[in-house]
Amino acid sequence: MEFSKSLINWYLHNKRDLPWRKTPQPYPVWLSEIMLQQTRVAQGLPYFLKFIDAFPTVHDMAAAPEEQVLKLWQGLGYYSRARNLHATAKQVAFDMGGNFPDSYSGLLQLKGVGDYTAAAIASISYGEAVPVVDGNVYRVLSRVFGVETDISSSGAKKEFTALAASLMPHKQASAFNQAMMEFGALQCVPKNPDCSICIFNRDCVAFLTGKVSQLPVKLKKTKVTNKFFNYLIVKDPNSNTIINRRGDKGIWFGLYEFPLLETESLTSTEETIALIKAFAPLGFTPKGIQLLHPNVIIHKLSHQKLHIRFWEVTSDAELPESIDIEQVKTYPFPIVIHNFIENNWD
């Protein structure tokens, strides 16, 4: 089986027309790879276009305030990626004269750039023969070659990297890596792939042995924690409200939110109203308290399941540091709060 030749030929005939593929320059390649970590292309593409429009060069991004970067990123999740993106832009622009390192080892020195991203940039932009290994690569290699190693085990990455390296044509590193990722995204998909049209169905071990749904093997499961958030939408006589910046630790750090009352479980309406009345951080005695929607909003993160309710809390007095809704909309929020604002506040 001429795996690499067949794979690259498939890629050349089936690859999607994506803007970062039009140039091997490291800036758009880096930007796309950071965005597409844990994000599908269909979701990430509009964000890529917004960022390129706002920041045509790495210098433009470096000169922007972090809040602008976070606001544009709003909705992509995993906000540490956005902060690392901004930090790396400043590192490249201010410390490296706007030039990205031109090797895999050099790229690894950039903040937020790990093995996968460094390998992608090094191979696509500079032709360096370094294999990429991500979920798509694990899936393709484990199925085609029948590798039953648990991909969450400590030695899996080394094993799959070695296998990918052994298959890579050194003069076609860029095409090979992109083909591997594209094949996993379009053909060898996680669930119910159409193996009848797969170019490897005569040789694929998983297909021939009926193990497509069992590979890749992943035994370690993520423990999910439930959290219960009550956001307090304060309104004073001028219809102004209060927002706070989250601290520098935990989820969504550095983003903005309404005053938050967190409970250990899902409390009743009566219990929650009593807790809001006694909630010292508000700094005033509420005139009225009202639940703004009947159903709890469920928001799932990688390690947490958030149970969210929004409450309107009115005040008789004007509040210091309160702002109007148009100002509120300019701040970066977690997407669940942003959606609430967009859908409930004219």
Automatic annotation (TrEMBL):
- GO BP: any one term: mismatch repair
Keywords in UniProt for this one?
4Fe-4S, DNA damage, DNA repair, Glycosidase, Hydrolase, Iron, Iron-sulfur, Metal-binding
Q: Does the keyword Iron apply?
A: yes
Identify the enzyme class: hydrolase
Which reaction(s) does the protein catalyse, per the Swiss-Prot or TrEMBL entry? Hydrolyzes free adenine bases from 7,8-dihydro-8-oxoguanine:adenine mismatched double-stranded DNA, leaving an apurinic site
Which note does the record give on the cofactor? Binds 1 [4Fe-4S] cluster.
Please indicate if the UniProt record lists Ribosomal protein as a keyword.
no
The HhH-GPD domain, residue ranges: 35-186
List the GO molecular function terms.
Answer: 4 iron, 4 sulfur cluster binding; 8-oxo-7,8-dihydroguanine DNA N-glycosylase activity; adenine/guanine mispair binding; metal ion binding; oxidized purine DNA binding; purine-specific mismatch base pair DNA N-glycosylase activity
- Would you say which domain of life the source belongs to? Bacteria
The coenzyme or cofactor needed here is: [4Fe-4S] cluster
Supply the EC number(s).
3.2.2.31
Question: Which PANTHER family does the UniProt record give?
Answer: ADENINE DNA GLYCOSYLASE (PTHR42944)
The record's family statement is: Belongs to the Nth/MutY family.
Function, please?
Adenine glycosylase active on G-A mispairs. MutY also corrects error-prone DNA synthesis past GO lesions which are due to the oxidatively damaged form of guanine: 7,8-dihydro-8-oxoguanine (8-oxo-dGTP).
Q: What is this protein called?
A: Adenine DNA glycosylase
What organism does this protein naturally occur in?
A: Flavobacterium subsaxonicum WB 4.1-42 = DSM 21790
